[in-house]
Amino acid sequence: MTPRSAAEEASDLNATGRLRQLITLTERLTQRLIEESRAFEARRPQDVAVGMAETRDLANLYRRESAQVKANPAVFAGGGLRERKALIRATEAFEAVLARHVHAVEAARVISEGLVKAIAEEVANVRGSPSAYGSSGRAAAGDGRAVALNRTA
Fold first, then answer.
1. Dihedral, CA of residue 75, residue 76, residue 77 and residue 79, to nearest 10
2. How many whole angstroms separate alpha carbon 87 and alpha carbon 79?
């Protein structure tokens, strides 16, 4: 076996360090998504707002790191086998939690849209249908308040 140069050893240490950082990032993001999913499933979406900025920042960092690894997978070539396997496990767990999170967020969106639609319909029903003219032949005074339902939430 040929002796390894100091540069090769440093490169391997760097790759192992980067693997560990990505594992930690993936695990942190996974934990945030678990917490958010639980809040949505408990019908407490307001609890998600507290950590939304942290989740967004972690997700952006994860996206950037993943893109860098995809563009240059050799960056992990010298990393330890144990760390590479740990990253695979962390990524698999992240993907499973992400699928659960997507379903929870979609359910919360459907519920929210349903509530807004029900409120808008109730307001419209209470106001009654507009009539163009009153019994005196004059235009009827309408309700000046507006309700808008934007279906592109």
1. 140
2. 11
The 10s digit of each residue's pLDDT in 77-118 is: 888 889 999 999 999 999 999 999 999 888 888 888 888 888
Q: Which of 31, 5, 21, 11 is nearest to 83 (CA)?
A: 21
- In this prediction the pTM is 0.70
Residue with tokens 């949505």: 40
pLDDT digits (tens, 9 = 90+) for 112-148: 888 888 888 888 777 666 556 666 767 665 555 555 6
- The alpha carbon of 123 is separated from its chain's Cα centroid by a whole number of angstroms, namely 32
DSSP string over 58-125: HHHHHHHHHHHHHH-GGGGTTS-HHHHHHHHHHHHHHHHHHHHHHHHHHHHHHHHHHHHHHHHHHHHH
